[in-house]
Amino acid sequence: MKSFTILTPTRTALVNITSHVSKAVTESGIRNGAVVVYVPHTTCGITINEAADPDVAQDILMQLDKTVPRGRMYRHREGNADAHIKTSLLGTSATVLIEDGQLVLGTWQGIFLGEFDGPRNRKVYLQFLS
Amino acid sequence: MKSFTILTPTRTALVNITSHVSKAVTESGIRNGAVVVYVPHTTCGITINEAADPDVAQDILMQLDKTVPRGRMYRHREGNADAHIKTSLLGTSATVLIEDGQLVLGTWQGIFLGEFDGPRNRKVYLQFLS
Amino acid sequence: MKSFTILTPTRTALVNITSHVSKAVTESGIRNGAVVVYVPHTTCGITINEAADPDVAQDILMQLDKTVPRGRMYRHREGNADAHIKTSLLGTSATVLIEDGQLVLGTWQGIFLGEFDGPRNRKVYLQFLS
Fold it and tell me: Of A95, C8, C32, C60, which sits 20 to 30 A from A2 (CA to CA)?
């Protein structure tokens, strides 16, 4: 298992972590299999989506805010219930395939940490499976 | 592969199954890898979220009810279309990492079965990967 | 790793790809483990849900359209921001268990490609893990 830490910039953000994952895959020496990208947190998740136009990430965050608004209508008293709910919608991990020692991503795909209660230091764990 | 069955208490519920998964990991003898926690159903899912404050689970269920209301506006004639839709939003599995024979979960994380059409007996399958 | 291509029929569709995955599992010779079903795209996803009544798939698509409407309120200028957002809600992969050389699916479960910006040719990658 490998891990890295990132500092997220704002309360909500989609942070592109593809290069971190790609570097770890190379260092691991794994040739074929998959990597599970996992966050041990409950107010951020992982998603794979378009990395070329940053507007896509903004639209995802905006829609999540619209569907799951921040506010006082929740029971959880810490003011971040919306962040927990968004985390369950995204999921806390993504599994990405590896072939010939390389991440198998589509042309437009990037791996993102979806921050919903930042800014914070977030850990990302990587487990390699074959 | 291992499996266990749980009886869910109400129509919708987030049931903490972490101890079942943890026990199975120990029994399996696996040291490093991952476990796929999978439900073979179409009206319940799996999610990882906060296990400390039970209000978080209630908020997740409440928001899912708000976004995907139960009712007669669906084509599926069994009255549980909302449960199917919520299942696709959560997903039918979670992959959790294993290191040194232990589940790698964050301080606040628990593994939950998200029941959307209970009460029912639900099967959970566990597959260990390395 | 294996792959196949499908042509999706309409802008949005849930296309049942279970038989393609099942056939590939048989051909792979894998006896026990899991298969990761992965799409290298950013406007379609993978979900597991009921395959018996096609109304369930229609209800899922209808609800996603309602929660994430198509329109001009997004920043992404290609007119398919809704498709990107729906992809993050579903996820780009599903992990399905394999036992005794067979996919482990529940009675009602099928594996679907969720198309949100078709019709298009879509690639599906399969990685076998044990």
Answer: C32
